[in-house]
Design goal:
alpha+beta; three-stranded mixed β-sheet; 11 helices
Length: 373
């Protein structure tokens, strides 16, 4: 694969950079965080700029740039730690509806997702079958749901949630569940984004709410993209945190010279750079495999990217905060926000240890990290 973006992806990256840089300053972030963690004005602007449709196929009104296009946008969001649920809405709702939804489901949900008037988020957690937190009980011509998903990004502002459900026979189905009758309890999560625990108890769904096809396959397809999206977001978080640390250590004078000239400082910054590039390259590789239809190879590649985002990403945000010395411990100083985002990403949809176990199981089945180039 080519690791340099082509003209289309470069244009998407540049447009995203200009939007996030202009609309996600520190003062605006503080304002949004204190008001629930969702920047509705920025979301509307992203819709008006056609950013929300970057990854969706052209036949449903998107730009058709796939996961690489979404990765280009998410990297720029991460650089500004902008409070919009792009990774969640795009990969755990919009993309699976576009890929697996019935014509009626696509017509009902995708236009609103593209123009920003409707938010559908995914209530996904790790695990299959009996490990799923939500189960269905037969009820008349449909099903009644039971169970709680403990953490759902953007549930507070969502019109509907896409949720994997254990069916009465033990199979998995993925359903679109309107939020009107759900109990949503707002959470104050690490990075202060919009997030809630959601109780599905008593929600009634019909066959029209179920994505057609093998629910387990849909779950796995969606989870791969969600993890790669988190890795792409981590690239921007780590990249900007490292740039901030480089600037600070170059300007901080101690004993007559910048502290960046100390070997311990420069080596730690170099390690952080290597970790950041490892996240970038593995995320791009996994996204490329998905865009080229190599789903079997993408299974392991997505886990590798998420492992780097969890393990390497944590090292970067710890290092960059430490390189700021005492000011790094000031929770009002900008670098602390990147530390919080790095930790949120690291433990979303699997910590490094959990991802490592999954990767080991995949490799035992004979899967490769990525297709040969």
């Amino acid at each position: 694969m080519e690791f340099e973006f082509d003209d289309n992806l470069s244009a998407v990256r540049d447009l995203s950079e200009s939007i996030f840089a202009a609309k996600s300053g520190v003062d605006r972030l503080r304002e949004v965080e204190s008001a629930g963690g969702f920047d509705a004005k920025l979301w509307k602007l992203l819709a008006e700029s056609d950013i929300l449709g970057i990854a969706l196929p052209e036949e449903v009104g998107g730009a058709g740039l796939g996961m690489l296009g979404l990765a280009a946008v998410l990297e720029q969001q991460g650089r500004r730690v902008a409070q919009v649920p792009l990774w969640s809405v795009m990969t755990t709702a919009a993309l699976p509806i576009a890929e697996f939804g019935s014509p009626e489901q696509k017509a009902k949900w995708l236009p609103g997702l593209l123009d920003g008037s409707v938010i559908v988020a995914g209530a996904f957690e790790t695990g299959h079958g009996a490990d799923l937190p939500v189960r269905a009980e037969a009820s008349g011509g449909g099903w009644t749901l039971r169970g709680t998903v403990e953490s759902v990004t953007a549930a507070d502002v969502a019109t509907a949630l896409l949720v994997p459900v254990e069916m009465p026979g033990g199979d998995t189905s993925v359903m679109i569940v309107p939020t009107g009758n759900l109990v949503r309890t707002s959470l104050n999560v690490t990075n202060h984004e919009s997030n809630s625990a959601v109780s599905f108890d008593g929600a009634v769904v019909t066959a029209a709410d179920v994505l057609p096809g093998d629910g387990t396959a849909i779950f796995d397809w969606t989870m791969r993209r969600a993890r790669v999206a988190l890795a792409a977001l981590a690239v921007g978080v780590c990249e900007e945190a490292l740039a901030m640390a480089a600037k600070y250590t170059s300007e901080r004078i101690q004993f007559g010279r910048p502290i960046s000239t100390n070997q311990a400082v420069s080596v730690r910054a170099a390690d952080a750079y290597l970790d950041t590039e490892s996240i970038r390259l593995t995320a791009q590789r996994a996204a490329w495999l998905m865009d080229t239809g190599a789903e079997s190879e993408a299974e392991a590649a997505a886990l590798v990217a998420k492992w780097w985002a969890s393990r390497g990403g944590l090292r970067v945000v710890h290092a960059t905060q430490h390189l700021h010395g005492g000011i790094g411990a000031d929770i009002d100083y900008p670098i602390h926000r990147y530390f919080l985002w790095g930790r949120q990403i690291a433990f979303s949809l699997g910590s490094a240890g959990a991802i490592g176990m999954e990767l080991g199981n995949v490799l035992e089945k004979g899967a490769s990290i990525g297709a040969p180039v």
